[in-house]
Amino acid sequence: MGTLVRAARELLNWRSLRWKIAALVAMASCAVALAVGVLVHRSTFDRSMSIGRERATNALGPVVDQYRRTGVADPLQDPGAMPDALVRQVRGPGQVSFWYDDRRPDTPWMWAAESVDGQVIAVQMELGSELRSLQALDRHIVEASLAVLAVVVPLAALAAELPNRRLRRVAGTARRIAAGDLDARIGTRGSGGDEITQIAAAVDTMADSLRDRLVSEQRFTGDVAHELRTPLMGLTTASELLPEGEAADLVRDRVRVLRSLVESLLEISRLDACAERAERAVVPLGRVVEDSVRRAGLQVRLTVTGDPVAETDPRRLDRIIANLVANAHRHGVSPVEVTVDGTTIAVRDHGPGFPRELLAEGPQRFRTGAAERGQGHGLGLTIALGQAQVIGAELTFGNAPDGGAVAELRLPGGARSRTDTRPTRT
């Protein structure tokens, strides 16, 4: 059903290239039909005028000959009864003048007049049949043009569907690449071709370059983290041998921070390489979250609705909860609230909220966003998002209407729960 709705929406989208091409073809066809119609109409009208003048001339000749022989013409026209425009056109003897009388549009006339011995002799010929033929011709041209448009416009829309389909494929592949599928390709055959083929080739080339750069960056991050582990172990051992004192405590604290950073980098490199695999098990969700919050050692207000059960990887879920809670304490303001409702886990603080850049682009490593959210490496949310993808969960970030950052983790599958709510403070 959804596919049909999307197809209908695309078909009725007047901004689509399909309808723009069809409108362009319709305009071009109308312009051609108008030009041809005007030319045919003018040519036919001129021919009708020529036929009318010839008929009027043929009718005027016997009348003039009769007048010259007998002095009487039938009909002998009184100049006062002739149109003024015709009388003004009459020249000398032997010169025939013509005038098209369309004062009555339904019955036009062609006048022919000649001056004989100072007397103007004129005849008129009805051109009603020619006018009706011209009107019928105009009507047939309009009907034929509409019939051609009725056929050409749908054919143009159908013909435009092929490039539209190729363009939609290019756009869909670009969206997949933007969403993180770096192996998505359009696929082009040969070289050259039209502009769409060139765009497709450019997108594929861009995707190859982007993938190579990201792979190089991921490899560099993993190599650096691995290379730092050996000297870091030496630093850890050496710090433990220092005599007790304020300086030793400061060194040990910095070594712990460095060790946590290196472990985070290693974890990110494994996530980037898709080397992590979930080990799923059916677990009581409320108890797992409660244990995770307790191990974090931070002040949290925990609320569990019912007794939800979910099938997930408890170790990775613990990692996600710990990172979200630590991020809320580091960058937000107490109280930090963790709510478990069904298969949805929400972590909220009451600080300034997530920055707009994070909400728009997602968490980025080594970028914490706004300065008012404190200092850090920007790795906690990145790791939480990566682990959520491993277990097939959806992790979203937002800001509460009354202030504070909210991170929601939605686990896949359903959950059973009772209706009681048990608040816990850890």
TrEMBL record:
Secretion signal span = none
Q: Spell out the Gene3D superfamilies in the cross-references.
A: 1.10.287.130, HAMP domain in histidine kinase (1.10.8.500), Histidine kinase-like ATPase, C-terminal domain (3.30.565.10)
For this protein, what reaction is catalysed? ATP + protein L-histidine = ADP + protein N-phospho-L-histidine
Gene Ontology, cellular component aspect? plasma membrane
The cross-references to SMART domains, in alphabetical order and at most eight, read:
HAMP (SM00304), HATPase_c (SM00387), HisKA (SM00388)
Q: Start and end of every HAMP domain?
A: 165-215
Keyword list, A-Z: Kinase, Membrane, Phosphoprotein, Transferase, Transmembrane, Transmembrane helix, Two-component regulatory system
Its domain of life reads Bacteria
The Histidine kinase domain sits at: 223-415
Q: Where in the cell is it found?
A: Cell membrane
Segments crossing the lipid bilayer: 21-40
Give the Enzyme Commission number.
2.7.13.3
Q: What SUPFAM superfamilies does the record point to?
A: ATPase domain of HSP90 chaperone/DNA topoisomerase II/histidine kinase, HAMP domain-like, Homodimeric domain of signal transducing histidine kinase
Alphabetical list of InterPro entries matching this protein: HAMP_dom, HATPase_C_sf, HATPase_dom, His_kinase_dom, HisK_dim/P_dom, HisK_dim/P_sf, Sig_transdc_His_kin-like_C, TCS_sensor_his_kinase
Molecular function (GO) terms listed?
A: phosphorelay sensor kinase activity
Q: Name one Pfam family in it.
A: HAMP
Q: Which PANTHER family match?
A: SENSOR HISTIDINE KINASE TRCS, SENSOR HISTIDINE KINASE YKOH
Name of this protein:
histidine kinase
